[in-house]
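Hi support team,

I've been running sequence recovery on a batch of backbones for a student project. Most finish fine, but this one hangs at about 90% for roughly twenty minutes before it completes. I'm not sure whether the input is malformed or the queue is just slow. I've pasted the structure tokens below so you can try to reproduce it. Let me know if you need the job ID as well.

Thanks,
M.K.
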């Protein structure tokens, strides 16, 4: 399994958590209306997608619902998936680290392996001859800084 395959696999927990939250929203609503869209937007924001990204996804979904006259739960879910895929549809998936400095920001819900992934990415970049600096931003979690320090030492930063 390649590096990015492992990374993709590690993001499975984030996907599952987000999917569960979205399904919970749909279980509470029986019609497609503005309340549903607001709840979905809140779930996206609270799942660390960010306000700008979440608003863009929901705005696209809102437009599609009106244009295509979407009324069923399943059609809304499919449209939501497509709007989210648009945000991730990047023609070239190669990391572009030719600027100095280059920054890789890792986000996700709690417990999905972000810190472990950061350590593995740092180790890989170090092996590729890059100079790496790791900064911990998850300072609200106990031992977050200590954990990232361990990974930094493993990568021999």
């Amino acid at each position: 399994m390649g590096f990015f395959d492992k990374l993709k696999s590690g993001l499975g927990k984030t996907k599952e958590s987000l999917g569960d939250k979205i399904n919970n929203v749909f279980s509470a609503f029986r019609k497609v209306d503005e309340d549903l869209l607001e709840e979905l937007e809140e779930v996206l924001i609270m799942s660390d997608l960010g306000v700008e990204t979440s608003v863009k996804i929901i705005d696209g979904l809102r437009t599609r619902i009106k244009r295509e006259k979407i009324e069923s739960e399943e059609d809304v879910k499919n449209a939501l998936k497509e709007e989210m895929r648009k945000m991730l549809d990047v023609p070239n998936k190669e990391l572009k680290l030719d600027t100095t400095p280059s920054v890789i920001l890792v986000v996700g819900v709690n417990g999905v392996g972000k810190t472990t992934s950061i350590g593995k990415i740092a180790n890989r970049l170090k092996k590729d001859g890059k100079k790496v600096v790791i900064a911990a931003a998850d300072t609200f979690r106990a031992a977050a800084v200590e954990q990232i320090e361990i990974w930094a030492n493993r990568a021999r930063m």
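--
Follow-up from support: It reproduced on our side and the slowdown came from queue contention, not your input. Residues 95-157 form one domain. No action needed from you.
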